[in-house]
Amino acid sequence: MPTELFEWACEQIEDKYKQLDHTYGWRLLTTPSATLSHKPDIAFITLNPGGDTIHPDHGRESCENGSAYIYERWPRGKGKGPATHNRGEAPLQKQVQALFKEIALLIGEPDYRSMMDTSLMAYYIPFRSPSYSELLKPKESREFAFNLWSCLTENISPRLILTIDRITFEDFKKILGKKPGCKRADHPPLPTGWGKTTVDVTWYTIPGSRRVVVTRFPHLSRFRIFNRQKSKKHMGQILSLITEHLRQCPNKFEVMT
């Protein structure tokens, strides 16, 4: 494995992108490339980049300015006014900021924005598509992502993995479950205060490693459960549960150089 994990991953993605005849572009990280090599405690992994074009102000492989959920202008839906939201003002961006703000308060991190910039934020399947149903060769693309992240998680060890879709959640459970001697415990589905919508939580204890918690929230662009009064109590309980191990063994989030 090359010492530069990010460069290695990008080479693998570019080769597979061409092999599978993808055409919309690709992106791996929504944070700086250094977040893949600094072994961050928190990872926020979403399914795949959406849309059919790469914005000229957005990095192709990563977002070197900091978290894309803070610094980028994301497009609006068609017929909804200006072409883009203000920086960090798209619904999903605002929800992710609210999520990290609550986590920062729980673990005693004074600056949630800095915590977002230094956490690992990425796409599980790096290939762009207008929607997941329109992703070219989804089976092969997902298999590639599984193998890629299986390799990446041998070199990084986030203690809290946050997801907002079932594919990423289920595949990360399989990736962690492959580790020798791994013990798994599933929590019953947790209510969100939004109808029957729930949050899933799975714990892993890996010999010689730290405890890892994998969590699936509902897709936050559709279910805006943060900063919502009816969900506030539920979210507080859920976030307290999934960050307990971070509070017991806190690590300082520092600005990377």
What does it look like?
This protein is α/β, with parallel strands linked by helices and 257 residues long. The chain has a single domain, classed as Uracil-DNA Glycosylase, subunit E (3-Layer(aba) Sandwich), CATH 3.40.470. Helices cover 35% and strands 14% of the residues. The chain contains eight helices and six strands, in the order H-E-H-H-H-E-H-E-H-E-E-E-H-H. It has helices at residues 5-19, 68-71, 91-107, 112-118, 138-152, 166-177, 229-242, 244-248, and strands at 42-46, 120-123, 160-163, 183-191, 198-205, 212-216. A six-stranded mixed sheet has the order 2-1-3-6-5-4, with helices on both faces. It is globular, with a radius of gyration of 18 Å. The two termini are 23 Å apart. The model is unreliable at 252-257 (pLDDT under 50).
Task: Give a short overview.
The chain is an alpha/beta fold. Helix content is 35%, strand content 14%.
> What is the class in the CATH system?
Alpha Beta
In N-to-C order, the SSE pattern is: HEHHHEHEHEEEHH
What structural category characterises the helix and strand content? alpha/beta
Strand order of the largest sheet: 2-1-3-6-5-4
Shape: globular
Second rung of CATH, namely the architecture: 3-Layer(aba) Sandwich
Distance between the termini: 23 Å
The value of Rg in angstroms is 18 Å
Protein name: Uracil-DNA glycosylase-like domain-containing protein
Organism: Candidatus Abyssobacteria bacterium SURF_17
